[in-house]
Amino acid sequence: MKSVLAGDVRGMKQMLMHVHGEMLQTAVLENGRLVEFFMERSKASSLVGNVYKGRVVNVLPGMQAAFVDIGLSKNAFLYIDELLHPHLDKQPEHKPLIQELVRPGQELIVQVMKEPLGGKGARVTTHFTLPGRWLVYMPSSDYVGVSKKIGSESDRTRLRTIGEKLRQNKEGIILRTAAGSESELSLHADVSQLRELWQAIEGRGKKEHAPAELHREAGLMHRVVRDTLTADMDEIWIDDAVRYEEALSLLQEMTPKLLERLKRYEKLSGSGVSLFEAYRVSEQIAAAFERRIPLESGGHLIWEETEALTVIDVNTGKFTGTSDLEDTVFRTNMEAADEIARLLRVRDVGGIIIIDFIDMEQEKHREQVMHRLTDKARSDQTKCSILGWTRLGLLELTRKKARENAVQQLSERCAGCGEIVRRNTSFK
What we know:
Layout: E1 13-20, E2 23-30, E3 33-41, E4 51-60, E5 65-69, E6 76-79, E7 107-114, E8 123-125, E9 130-131, E10 135-138, E11 144-146, H1 153-166, E12 172-175, H2 184-207, E13 212-215, H3 220-228, E14 235-238, H4 241-254, E15 262-264, H5 275-278, H6 281-288, E16 292-294, E17 300-305, E18 309-315, H7 325-346, E19 351-356, H8 363-377, E20 384-389, E21 395-399, H9 406-410, E22 411-413, E23 420-422
Parallel strand pairs: 1-14, 11-12, 14-15, 18-19
Antiparallel strand pairs: 1-2, 2-3, 4-5, 4-7, 4-13, 5-6, 7-8, 9-10, 10-12, 16-17, 17-18, 19-21, 20-21, 22-23
């Protein structure tokens, strides 16, 4: 156990887990700067990844979709693409009609791919994925994929060869970034465990009557250890005894080599300095979720989130530069691209994102700004696609939206005035 204030964190990557009542808040820092933040209530765990046996309630030919009762308050939405083969090359040349694939009253097994958000029900699929520590198991995808973040061609070839050896029949496997240096034995153990899990899910599906839950995805602590803890994580701090023991057990099971980096944080005697305060996480979170976000140069961002999309406006503010206007604008936009990429991860923004960068006259500057944002997005664990400039000079991108993000969890709409207000949630 340790109770020391944060010292020199240059060159370090740290994960801090703060427990506040039923809430587990997790922050990832690089060089002391917040780059990721996520939170989850223990009594309101995520539905994404859960597998259900559902019953088709209604088929909508005009939308090529169906509504499925999976036992939640709102019926889940199943689009036709989620019924076809997971591999695009194996899908029919002409898409069939939805009524040819499902009918009202039919029972089928589905997996939640997107949380119920706003007034919409969950989005479900029949493209099943079971994530492990080193790979993702797909029961019927019939292909092997390797994470694009594994840059070495020799490593990619080695992993692809192992993946082909490990999969059986029509199974699919995606080798995760963390699998880069793992042995074939470790990967074999991972796929065997996930295969057994899928067989158990199928077994329950044959016995249960719809609607029924067949598999519940692991909680936040398990997902963090499985998906986020990588070999480049220098320190893992937890400020709660129960969660510390839980993490200790998970690390012993999944990544024993990281055990020595796990540390228990206790407030300094008499000082009352919490984990998030010691590493300046509290103030960084507060700043990251403001509508107006200052840039170091003197410029600023205006950040607006709606149900349909997120709009980000870049302004020069007080920054006047040292040479000409074009140089000032370009430098502000480059700085903004870095900050926007970071904040998309911290705020866990999903859906359509439109960025109104300051107008640039030179095409090479526009290309450099888009390239900078694309490059920064590669470190994002959530899929982020930079689509390019619109005819109006706006940069358009999308980021996968699966769960309620931190802004939605921290805010609520006032019943009286209709304004969005921040909930009284502690970061201390």
